[in-house]
Amino acid sequence: MEHHSDTPSGRVLRGGKIIFNDRRSVVDCLVRNLSDHEATLTVKSTMGLPKTFDLLISGDKESRPCDVSWQTENRMAVSFWPEQIGSSRVPQHDPSPPASSVRPTLVRGSLVALRASLDEVDFGVVIVDADLHATFVNRAFRRLWRLPEDATDCRPAFVDLMHNATRNGELSPESADHVNDTVARVQSGDSTPVELRLADGEVLRFQCFALPCGGRMLSYTRVTDMVRRSDELQVLRNAIDNVEEGIVLIDEALVVQFVNKKARDYWGLTPELCQSKPTVVDYINHVRTAGLYGVPNDALDDYVIKRVTMIKVGDQRPFDIPVKGGRTIRAKCTGFAGGGRMLTYTDVTDLVDRAEQQELLATTDVLTGLCNRRQFMRLAEAEWDRFQRYRNHFSILYFDIDSFKAINDRLGHEVGDQAIVRIAEVCKREKRTSDIVARIGGDEFVVLLPETDSAAALMAAERLRKAVHSVPLDVDGISIDLTVSIGVAHAELGLADMKELMKLADERLYQAKKNGKNCIAAGVDPATAMVQAESAPRASSN
């Protein structure tokens, strides 16, 4: 059947097969716009297809050698070799001479043009026949291997060409086996690109392309800059993989592109998962599913949303992540100009522990474990502010150990310390959850009672006094009765500040001492105070 590009039949869709690699490889295609000289083919993918192959069109008995004119991802245009244009295929109205008279001239002209073109390209090209003898060697190949022009004029065997190149010292020692490897690849028609290093440090990419006639076209392309950039990138990746910080690189689409070894160890990520390029959401959810966050289950959803949001907006504030096992990982997000992100992770468990220890030392009395004076005043000032704003009741108990100097002088400071610790234990046992107990110096203590009026404060003071007196201190078989004197003060609008309230309670403590110790002073008649204490509603001890 004849097909002409200017007839409807030239636009008929037909099936076809692309045949190459000595007819061992076949790829199905659809043939469009078929004419005597060319056609357009549609395939699943043009990747891996040679530039020259045989095309067998459905309904034809013989295949047609053809060259690729252009191609996209799944389409290509091909031109048929002149030999396929037979006289029987020329339309009757065609005034041109028979194909048999124009074919030799056309073929010779095409070959001359092809050779001239290949001689001008900047990469090495060798065309060998089915016996692996060189039928064409371009100038770039001769310059590359320092071969004289006459060395390629007598159809030398390709293996001899390469041995001559090796003798010229162009190959690096690690590439000494290139000749045997290359000959084997050419014989098999293996088109896999291979990198080859020259003695001067240059890098070539060798590739073999099978031709329909059984020959091969071989190319040598300089890729030194590309390989060097790849080597530099690999060195950088290796370096990042061995730093002490975890590093995660994320692109502008919020897809994870690289995770170093430390980050993989922190979050239990497998190399396979990292190579799959997960999204940020998938990455964070993996950590959650693995149960690595040291966050209560009821707060986990909000925590994950917060982490994803911080990464999406590029929040650069350091963020401490609690991890199962008691560790703390400090994360920081750094934004790139192109929209990407870099996450860094540092194990700061020791720093956090030391900071918490320092905070504890700064706010806690070492001997008793109670608040120290500084911490108590900070908390008391906050309670005073609430009193000023909302008029909430609160009171304080200011007390010390009766005859404490005598205990120290008679039994020693170690026993004195034991007495202080005993009083602290009683205070912890008797106090409410909301109460604040502090040792503010020597044997002096203070208790802050939020939401407590004067009557309830008197009752709390009496309960504390009795609790201390009921449990003597036993030292080496000697029983020591401990008692305390307590001054009670209630927050009132007439007082200027918290310091004045503390001074008032201290004055009442001094009054209790004058009244005979082991008693309470609250600024009223002692008998009345005791009646008030007995009749006041009992304060909660929870």
Structure characterization notes:
- This protein has helices at residues 99-120, 139-145, 158-167, 178-188, 224-241, 261-267, 271-275, 280-289, 297-313, 349-363, 373-390, 404-411, 413-430, 454-470, 498-514, 526-535; strands at 14-20, 25-32, 38-42, 52-57, 64-71, 75-80, 124-128, 134-137, 194-197, 203-210, 216-222, 246-250, 256-259, 319-323, 327-335, 341-347, 394-401, 436-441, 444-450, 473-475, 478-480, 484-490, 520-521.
- The chain is 39% helix and 25% strand.
- It is of the alpha+beta class and 542 residues long.
- It folds into 4 domains: 8-80, predicted glycosyltransferase like domains (Thrombin, subunit H), CATH 2.40.10; 121-226, Beta-Lactamase; 242-352, PAS domain (Beta-Lactamase); 364-535, Alpha-Beta Plaits (2-Layer Sandwich).
- Residues 1-10, 84-109 and 525-542 have low confidence and may be disordered.
- Strand 12 (246-250) and strand 13 form a beta hairpin.
- The termini are far apart.
- It has 16 helices and 23 strands.
- Helix 12 crosses helix 13.
Largest sheet: 6 strands, antiparallel, barrel
| Strand percent estimate | 15-25%
Mean pLDDT: 83
Mind telling me the CATH superfamily name of the largest domain? Reverse transcriptase/Diguanylate cyclase domain
List segments where confidence is low: pLDDT < 50 over at least 5 consecutive residues.
1-10, 84-109, 525-542
End-to-end CA span: 103 Å
Rounded Rg: 47 Å
| Helix content class | 25-40%
Describe the global form: rod-shaped
Any idea of the CATH topology of the largest domain? Alpha-Beta Plaits
CATH architecture of the largest domain: 2-Layer Sandwich
**Overall CATH class of the largest domain:** Alpha Beta
Structural class: alpha+beta
